[in-house]
Structures are given as C-alpha cells and as structure tokens.
Specification:
This protein has 244 residues and is of the alpha/beta class. It has a single domain, classed as 3-Layer(aba) Sandwich (Rossmann fold). Helices cover 35% and strands 17% of the residues. The chain has helices spanning 13-25, 58-71, 103-124, 155-176, 212-225, and strands at 4-8, 30-35, 48-52, 77-80, 134-139, 182-188, 191-192, 209-210, 234-236, 241-242. Strands 3-2-1-4-5-6-9-10 form an eight-stranded mixed beta sheet, with helices on both faces. The longest helix has 22 residues, at 103-124. The chain is globular, with a radius of gyration of 17 Å. The termini are far apart.
Length: 244
C-alpha cells in the first residue's frame, strides 16, 4: 500500500517546515498539502499534491475531502497547523480579563482553533479506517492545559485549545477501537517565530524562541517516536507529556 501524508496549512512558516521534514523522511509516496490559496505554495517535488482548503467554510472542507479521496484510499500521517491568537483586522486579542470577552471573537477563535480542524477530520475520517499505523497530529498549545494553568487570562485561546484537546482525546478513543496502530495527539510546538507569536515575543528568552525549522525538527522527532500507548495525549516539542 502506498503511504500518504496530508498537511493542512502549507503557507505558514511552521507548516512549510513540517512539509519539508515529511518529504525529507522519504516515508511517503504522496504528500497532500493544503492552503486557502494553493498558488502560494512554492514546493517543487513530484510527490506533492496541492489542494485548496478553507477550514472556515463547510463547502471548502467538503470539496477538499473529495479531492483527497480521489488521490488516495488511506492516510498514514495527518497534520493540522491551524491556529489564531491575535488578529487586529478581526479585532481579536488575548483577553486579560473576563470582561473583555465578546461573542464574535470567541466564535472566531473556536472556529479556527477547534471546529475547523475537527470538521476537516470528520470529512476525511473514512481514510483513517485501516489497520496500518496512522498518526493524526493537531498543533495545540501548553496554555490549553487546564492542569497547567496558573496564570489565567487569554480566555478564548486557552478555552479553544482545551476544547481541541478534548476532541483529540475523543478521536483517539474512537479510532483506537478499530485500529490499535492509530496514534492521535495534540502537539505543543513551543514558542515559534511566526506571525502568531510576534506580538508576544518580547518576554521570551532567546533560547526559547524557535525558528519554524527548529520547531519542525523537534516535532518531527516526536512524531517519528510516537507509540500507540501515547494516543490521546498532549505532547510538547521536547517529548514531555503535558497535563490536559
């Protein structure tokens, strides 16, 4: 059986870096990559297939799922890099106080960080259902851990990632019933020098601010070493399990 990888978010810094790790592994015959605007994907490799995908659109998700099903009968690696923390155009900022919450921002943050990736998984779930090893990894964040939360604040981001972690656990249990070789995890990439983290980098020690390539290297090492008994976990870039 040919091996197929699928990476959502090919135009972000970390998404691009992860795609290069997947290609360099030479473990996959087909590498499907998605972006809202596939013309921005500049990866020249005969194994790569590009498709449009907007996780905020159910029509786009359905169309992309059909494209994927036309390309492969089974998926062996699925990565989602979707995420939003701050967007001035959408008037989204990490809330420091409960009084700063508003419905529109909450709905947008949940839609991108939680609803989108798992509606995408729901649309392609038939391609998960085989007995070979499959890894499904969704980028999460340490601040989504309830047990690790000692500071509060960042309400919508924390809550959306906590909800994402619960869906990760649920999917791990569901898929594990039919495939003991399935590993479904959330991955914390550390603080990466991307647009998402730029407004918050001032307080980050220089040795804790990773380039996309550094973070992708760490995450790829985690992915390669994953074992079936780790399914459902939230795992940091250094392989440490984070309390949900």
């Amino acid at each position: 059986m040919q091996k197929t990888a699928l990476i959502q978010g090919a135009t972000g810094g970390l998404g691009q870096a992860l795609i290069h790790k997947v290609l360099a592994s030479n473990a996959y015959d087909i590498v499907i990559v998605t972006a809202r605007d596939p013309s921005r994907i500049v990866i020249s490799d005969p194994r790569v297939r590009t498709i449009p995908l907007d996780l905020a659109s159910d029509l786009s998700i359905a169309a992309a799922a059909r494209f994927v099903a036309d390309l492969t009968d089974a998926l062996h690696l699925v990565i989602s890099t979707a995420g939003i923390l701050k967007n001035e155009h959408l008037q989204i900022v990490p809330e420091k106080k409960l009084a700063e919450l508003n419905r529109e921002a909450l709905e947008t943050v949940f839609s991108i960080n939680c609803f989108g990736p798992f509606l995408w998984y729901a649309a392609i779930h038939k391609l998960f259902k085989h007995r070979e090893r499959i890894v499904i990894a969704t980028l999460s964040a340490r601040v989504g851990s309830i047990g690790d939360n000692s500071l509060g604040g960042w309400h919508s981001y924390r809550a959306s990632k906590a909800a994402q972690n619960m869906l990760t656990k649920n999917l791990s249990l569901e898929l594990g019933r039919s495939n003991p070789n399935a590993v479904v995890v959330g991955l914390h990439p550390g603080t990466v020098d991307t647009q998402l983290s730029k407004p918050f980098q001032a307080a980050i020690p220089i040795d804790k601010l990773f380039s996309p390539e550094q973070s992708a290297t760490y995450l790829w090492s985690v992915i390669e070493d994953l074992e079936a008994n780790q399914t459902g976990e939230l795992i940091a870039w250094d392989g440490q399990i984070i309390t949900r």
